[in-house]
């Protein structure tokens, strides 16, 4: 199993990869003679039959190739005989049964089940990945990061994929059975990855994770609290019922686990400023009132701070040439594809080139990384809403597309794999191509939110601004938003809006700016405060306008939702005497005191050591209802400590006795959640030797 890179699976059964030889040893009652008949029968599925390639009867003395499978006698001495079996590189993936026939006698070995997986090490397998470092990362690494936060402030969330842990392989085999795919379809990673993108969410098929974005998670586990996929898949396999609750990073983390477990190279990918619910002209509409506050009832989930999906690696024999390699799949239930909540695989190259007619769901993925953002101000006139267009941002959507770097604990920016550089001629050509495929049929509005309220018909919005370049303001006035100090819960939020003039002349600017608390999906939870001010800028000068929110104004709101909140600051600047209007928004994340991990740097296999987790509440507010979740794959099972309320200045310490069961570089991950602070994470590595 070392040659097959399957030695890490926590199972007593044989686990092998397709297209690669494995050895079987037979002990016979007497020496094998020339006239003896000996054959091995491998079968999969409910009705194994030779013509469908689900039953292979292999005779070591015949060189006949059965459905691409081969067998040969390696050695035979006395009653011992060693056989080498090579499955077809396109064999169906799943659990095979083995029986041995000697003439009329049938022998069923005690351990007669063999798990057959995809093989990225085999050139004949369409998931073949030539680079060993990439195979180590995308198939064998059982820990990693999922990137969250906002484009201004990217956080790495440690995540334990845990594809080798107890019951995970069985859970994946259960999902394969549950997918009801024909055995012939189980040969194809395109079909398998699409089916798994549907099964990882609970919609349609009682799949693994139930999504919940309501901010209320009492009757389940908060999406913020999970430390990895293991507890989720184990619970699912034991109960066969969806696990509560997940949001996009949970769906992505579990899908990475399932793909890596089955042998398909996979990675979790985060897209910052991800467009959701765009209508068919690649546009997201953001509605603001005159204070510059986003309107809760209108901007339904239009731009998410980030969204996480997956890339899987495979050749696309079902498409014209040129689309092999990374394919995007997404298990977060956002939009139905062919009647089911599933998404992909969509060639990343097709997104980059604008070939959005290619299956599967390429229009959807294209819009997530390429839509334009249009700001509208909504005012009331004579009892009717009036919509004023404030501006178009054509470059903010689809920023900092991120995944964990190969072989290193750092973020890699893969935006270039999805998009040409903004403003380049290739990008314009790609956009033109995409729009030509999108316009005629039109994209159906996503999910159950329409991007434009029903009383605004799309006609008065005008079609000519589908691909509209930024108008360069004549005045040269620019707006920037910065936070002077890091944001710590319990301290004032202090933001500065800078209005600067870059060319000669004198301008009077009406500024409206607001501060709101919102979840990563753009859902506004609370309006915290706003300012309206008129400022003058002359020549090359700048004016700083402070916006300060006291803790009393936001701490209560922070504790009423179970989501990780971001501070959204929006500014509208109107230059008097001109039609120019500028809009700027920034999403800021809170910062938290760290968890410290105390443990030795190295450990020995099966020798206990102690690991201590220490946390000091350096904030000036108590953290209520604290829970600490800790997990170390190959070291100790996940444990949860109820820490109660932690007052300011108080220190807590929790200890775990660890027993390493696997050698190599291992990681311990801890996550603290509370009513006020939803996610403080830490990880620490340890080298385990024999």
UniProtKB/TrEMBL annotation:
Cofactors required:
Ca(2+)
Q: What Gene3D superfamilies would the database entry show? A: Immunoglobulins (2.60.40.10), Transglutaminase-like (3.90.260.10)
Keyword Metal-binding assigned to the entry: answer is yes
Name the domain of life this protein comes from: Eukaryota
Reaction(s) the record says it catalyses: L-glutaminyl-[protein] + L-lysyl-[protein] = [protein]-L-lysyl-N(6)-5-L-glutamyl-[protein] + NH4(+)
Catalytic residues, chain numbering: 248, 307, 330
Q: How is the cofactor bound?
A: Binds 1 Ca(2+) ion per subunit.
Which GO terms of the molecular function aspect are on file?
A: metal ion binding; protein-glutamine gamma-glutamyltransferase activity
Q: Which Pfam families does UniProt cross-reference here?
A: Transglut_C (PF00927), Transglut_core (PF01841), Transglut_N (PF00868)
- Residues annotated to bind Ca(2+): 370, 372, 422, 427
Keyword Acyltransferase included in the entry's annotation: yes
Q: What class of enzyme is it?
A: transferase
- Which portions of this protein are annotated as coiled-coil regions? none
In short, the EC number is 2.3.2.13
Q: Which residues form the Transglutaminase-like domain?
A: 240-333
Give the matching PROSITE patterns.
TRANSGLUTAMINASES
Q: Which UniProt keywords apply?
A: Acyltransferase, Calcium, Metal-binding, Transferase
Q: How would you summarize the oligomeric state and partners of this protein?
A: Homodimer.
Please state which protein family the record places this protein in.
Belongs to the transglutaminase superfamily. Transglutaminase family.
Can you name this protein? Protein-glutamine gamma-glutamyltransferase 4
What organism is the protein native to? Phasianus colchicus
